[in-house]
Structure formats: structure tokens, C-alpha cells
């Protein structure tokens, strides 16, 4: 799995300003002036020509200066990051507003019809210092103020499968496991995008409050390019718990390999891009330890690994330190793997395992002539293994990367959007 932390929003800036842009509008503030007129009339004047002295009155009004107000207020140290930035002006109109973070990002926004209020299109990021530069039309110098948003308290991240820049088989879903239970599934799912080339409908499905998988209706087309967009930073997954990731991750789908295990015939047929690549004799789970049936996806691969019965609830029935060519099919412990301890005659004739699918192999995992080695060498993460006629019910879709066992309608019903 991979996880990455916050990406700098300046990475997405475009020429001139940034992806969030700077909105500048021009308006005019009408000058307000009050003026008065005077008139004269004759009046008797003491001792001379009887003329009346004239008096004039002049009145004027001084135009009011625009007053700009920024919210959050200048100097705020722990401003909320769940509300947009606002800039208002009285006795005037706004000419331009620029909001810049200390991470190089900018906040785009828009004015109301009266051009007296500017509101950012998105909320500011947490833990960031912002500088707001606002200019009123016809006024003098621009006004500058600063504020710093508070850091979130508790946080969560999503660990994703497959790994960044990896190539997988056609059955590999995009699976995200969150480090904290998600209450607002719609908000979190909305902040995650999965886009593909060639284009096809992709839908998310919640298996639990900590796991969200994405897949198309049918297996991926070979050669598909998948881009996972995580925009979880400051998304409130549950009360007071915020995401911290903002990143794009790319995966690729390789060739198609689908292997079908028929435990009645005790053989596995491997098809590559529709053509039969190989047929191997196998041994599946015995009558007391039947193998899950259904569509399963290879989620882990080990050239050699230890398998211990106590880890899967089977007491001390076995403990093998060097199982060769093991490929995981379920979280609960189902593998397709090499087997060097059983007689060669078992494969293709008897189901004797504790639930895994076994192929003849050699101790040490270095003999390239045996089926266990060959199948492992031909496989990759995300390859599909279908088990039928095992005497067991279909595997739980959440048990491993096995969501293909859900119909498309049932898969879509698990989306929060």
C-alpha cells in the first residue's frame, strides 16, 4: 500500500495567477458632494446708502472613504478553516482581491452583484498563513491583512492499493483503507476520484466505515491507465477528524490472466489474453477444510513464506516455515501455493489441503521445472483466480480484493453518492 501527505497547491497553478485565480473587478465610486447657492436682497444699512448687506452660505460634503473588512480578521492566529474567506466594503466597491497562502497557493473567489462582497470559492487550508490584499475602486493604497488557520486536531489518511506507478492484473480494484472510521461517507467519497483511460464508468463501494473500493462493471481492459485523485485534506470524515492528503496517484493494468481451478477435475487452466497458457494438476481443500469458491484476486506474493495453522484458527495442525511460491487469495488465509511435502501423485487426483490450492513444487523454490514455480513466474498482483466445484460457498466479497463476486447492481448500491 502507499500513502502520501499533503501536496502543495501551488503545483496546480496556471499562468498569470493560479488554479484558484485572482478575481479583479473594476467599478466606480461616485463622488458625493453637497453644494449650496446664495442670493442677496436690499436692507437699510446704518447711516449710509440704505443698501442691504449680502450674506452667502456655502455648504459642502466630504465624500466618505471606503472601509474594507476581512473575515477572518487581521491578526487572527487560529482561524477556522471550515468557512470561506470574505471581504466586504462599505461606502464603495471592490476593485480587486487577492488571497495568498504561505504555501504559494491562492484562493479564487467571486463578487456579489453590488460588488461590495467577495467570497472565496473554497475554504482555506488548515495550518496555513494567508495574506489578503484588497483594493477599493477610487481609493488610495490597497489594504493588506493576514490570518493563520488552526491545525486540525485528529486526522486520518487513506492507504491505497495498488502501489503508485505499479502494473497489475485485470482484477485489481482500487482499494482504500482509512486509519479512522468514516461517518460522513458521502463527503469522503466525493473527495476521491478514479479516472481511467480508456474511459469507463467507475463506482465506489463501501465494505465498512474504514474501507472503500472502486471498480468498473467488468474486469479492466488490458493496458488501462488509472489515476486516483485524493483530495481529502480538511475533509471532515467524522466529527473533529480531518483528512490530510492531497495527491494524484497513477496505476497501470497489464495483460489479462485468468486462471480457473476446477476442484472436481482437480486441475487449473491458465488463460492469458484469452488463450490457454498452461494446465496444471492441483489439490484443493479436503472435505473438512473446503476451499472458498468464487472469483478471487491475487493480493500478495511470496517466493517463500511461513504458514502456521494457529494463525487461521486450526490449532497446531501444521507449521511450515518455507512454503514456496505462495500467492494470497483471501485475507482469511487462502493461498494458491507450491507444495513439496505431498506426494506428486496427489496433484490431479486428491483434495488434501486445509483450504489452499496446491501445485507440485520443490523445496527451496528454485526449481523452474515444477508447476508451482511456473505458475508463480507467470502471475502478478491483480490476476484473477476462479475456484469452482469446491463444495464451499462463494467467498465473502470483503474477504480480500474479491468484490467481483457482487453483481453490478449490488456493487453500486454500496456507493455513498
Automatic annotation (TrEMBL):
Keyword Ubl conjugation: no
Annotated Gene3D superfamilies: 2.60.40.3710, 2.60.40.3780, L,D-transpeptidase catalytic domain-like
Keywords: Acyltransferase, Cell shape, Cell wall biogenesis/degradation, Peptidoglycan synthesis, Transferase
Species this protein is from: Streptomyces vulcanius
Domain L,D-TPase catalytic intervals: 257-388
Catalytic residues (UniProt): 337 (proton donor/acceptor), 356 (nucleophile)
Listed PANTHER family: L,D-TRANSPEPTIDASE (PTHR30582), L,D-TRANSPEPTIDASE YCIB-RELATED (PTHR30582:SF2)
Source taxon at top rank: Bacteria
Pathway(s): Cell wall biogenesis; peptidoglycan biosynthesis
Protein name: Ig-like domain-containing protein
